[in-house]
Recover the amino acids of this structure.
């Protein structure tokens, strides 16, 4: 049980005592000169886990995605992505701002582009038309409540893209959650794609950082782009050390977060005035809606007064995210708070 029940995001996870200890003792060097042994260890470990030749430690998921976009494309190209994707919605328009890329957002039912949608969106060679530079996928899907797509679905899209010589980037900020939920090896999801970004600082609880993985060629370009973006860091082994613990010790416990999210969602479904689509609760995110006027505010404020922090994501919806700093008692406390606040609601 924790003093505050923090359900706004898994980015609130605090580093474990083992992380703090290994950070304090990490062997370091200048990583721009590629002489930080701890960063090298993390990059080799992440590449092996993700089944790619190389990987690169980056400051954030946002930097990892932008680095990938710039590594695969040329200024003036078009990238295909889902309308609800993180890259299109929450990365400050960096594809256009920095990459000079035109985005081609496509509306999907579950957040995953179908092979047919990608086939239709890839541009033909024609002097009037922008050329397609990249297809982006996201797994798990943030705005669709942490839903997962299968390795087969990713492969089907990648086959279409590759047939047109278009590379594929996977925004896998929470890819380890998808692998845990579907009981598949994470390599199965990454095999069909040309680059993948995974976050160390969400459910895996490291204080900072994401990994971008791909072929030796892609990562050599990415290293240069990262430098341009200001992401060349020096004795950054102090941060990479926590990332090693994240990959080695924090992946196998993600099922616990999924069980807690499921329990939260099932109990919420019985709370008056609240609607939850239980089919979408597949990993550690629960999104629910409240139609009653003022209901969302009442829940957010009422919960806060009871030391339960939840996140309003739209006029009528709230997001809850479980993680290693949420245990079963915290789930019960949150549910008790929701029941008290909604007493008398219909
Ligand atoms: C969080 C997230 C990111 C960005 O990661 P930051 O480290 O917050 O920059 C990218 N994509 C998805 C799907 C995310 O959930």
């Amino acid at each position: 049980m924790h003093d505050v029940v923090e359900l706004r995001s898994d980015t609130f996870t605090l580093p474990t005592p083992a992380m703090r200890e290994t950070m304090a003792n990490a062997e370091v060097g200048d990583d721009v000169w590629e002489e930080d042994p701890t960063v090298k260890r993390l990059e080799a470990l992440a590449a092996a886990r993700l089944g790619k030749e190389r990987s690169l430690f980056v400051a954030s998921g946002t930097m990892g995605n932008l680095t990938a976009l710039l590594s695969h494309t040329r200024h003036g190209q078009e990238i295909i992505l889902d309308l609800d994707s993180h890259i299109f919605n929450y990365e400050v328009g960096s594809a256009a701002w920095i990459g000079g890329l035109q985005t081609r957002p496509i509306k999907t039912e579950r957040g995953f582009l179908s092979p047919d949608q990608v086939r239709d969106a890839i541009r033909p060679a024609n002097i009037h038309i922008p050329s397609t530079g990249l297809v982006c996928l996201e797994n798990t899907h943030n705005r669709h409540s942490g839903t997962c797509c299968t390795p087969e679905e990713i492969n089907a899209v990648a086959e279409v893209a590759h047939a047109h010589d278009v590379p594929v980037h996977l925004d896998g900020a929470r890819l380890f959650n998808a692998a845990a939920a579907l009981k598949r090896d994470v390599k199965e999801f990454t095999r069909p794609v040309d680059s993948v970004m995974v976050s160390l600082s969400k459910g895996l609880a490291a204080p900072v950082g994401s990994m971008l993985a791909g072929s030796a060629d892609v990562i050599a370009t990415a290293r240069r782009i990262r430098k341009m973006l200001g992401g060349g860091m020096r004795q950054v082994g102090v941060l990479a050390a926590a990332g090693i613990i994240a990959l080695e010790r924090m992946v196998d416990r993600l099922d616990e977060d999924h069980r807690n999210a499921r329990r939260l969602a099932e109990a919420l479904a019985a709370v008056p005035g609240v609607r939850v689509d239980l089919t979408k609760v597949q990993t550690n995110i629960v999104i629910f809606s409240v139609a009653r006027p003022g209901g969302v505010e009442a829940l957010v404020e009422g919960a806060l007064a009871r030391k339960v922090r939840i996140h309003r994501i739209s006029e009528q919806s709230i997001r809850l995210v479980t993680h290693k700093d949420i245990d079963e008692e915290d789930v019960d406390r949150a549910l008790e708070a929701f029941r008290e606040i909604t007493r008398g609601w219909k």
User: Anything to note?
Assistant: The pocket of pyridoxal-5'-phosphate is lined by residues 60-62, 65, 86, 138, 142, 171, 173, 199, 201, 210 (CB under 6 Å). The CA atoms of residues 30 and 234 lie 5 Å apart.
